[in-house]
Specification:
Layout: E1 4-8, H1 11-28, E2 33-36, H2 43-54, E3 64-67, E4 69-71, H3 82-89, E5 101-102, H4 111-124, E6 130-133, E7 155-158, H5 161-166, E8 180-183, H6 186-190, E9 194-199, H7 205-213, E10 231-236
Parallel strand pairs: 1-10, 2-3, 2-6, 3-5, 6-9, 9-10
Antiparallel strand pairs: 4-8, 7-8
Helix pairs in contact: 1-2
The chain binds fructose -6-phosphate.
Length: 251
Amino acid sequence: MRAKIIITDNYQLMSEAAARLVIEQIKKKPNAVLGLATGATPIGLYENLVKAAWLKTVSLSQTKAFLLDEYVGLNKADSRSFHYFIKNKLFDRVDIKKENTFIPDGQAQDLKKECASYESLIKRHGGIDLLILGIGLNGHLAFDEPGSEIDSKTRVVKLKEQTRRANAAYFKKPSQVPRQGITIGLGTIMKARKIILLAAGENKAGVIRRALKGKITKSVPASILQTHKNLTVVLDQAAAGELMAGGKRRK
Ligand code: F6R
């Protein structure tokens, strides 16, 4: 495996290390195209980016950003939508231009058309330069659940029960968690020129081992990342706990 693995002592240091990589990319290419995950894991990274933009260490004024996924059926203004999440955590707090931010519309009349145009929008912008990924407990990336095809594109998917359970904390009742999502595909992910995979916490240790050291298999979608040419994995100690000798300690 050619991935670079950075193991940090805790979540805060993981977030800082990841933010440094994103800032480095934006400085090198101010109009870089980013791909952004939501979820608990990248929150610290986004906080560090907000801080850096506020201190004017970096400017996102030319940067473009595509969100990886969205629930089907939730209104943009719904606080549980990924739309709301990314605006609240990042877009509304940095100098990125609204016209340079892209989020799949989970309420589109024609979802199939929405998926196709999202995929071509990414292409029209020259593809993703830097993609930030989290990982689900079942090895999913974005909403690409186990069984997803390696060359899949942006599409509507059925969410696995494990994923719905993991996301239930954001909803009053588990039954309110949407059953479908729009997600960029594994093929879309693999086309990104650089990928940063983030994971924190002991509960991610098993899936990180399976993804990075296990067999490359459809049943662990993240295992496909082993074949990516420019992957950096940033972990905290706990998430790296099962990598053992394979992981290089750098920080
Ligand atoms: C969400 C996304 C998901 C999450 C994954 C981990 O946009 O891409 O694949 O990255 O479900 O979620 P957290 O970080 O909440 O553990």
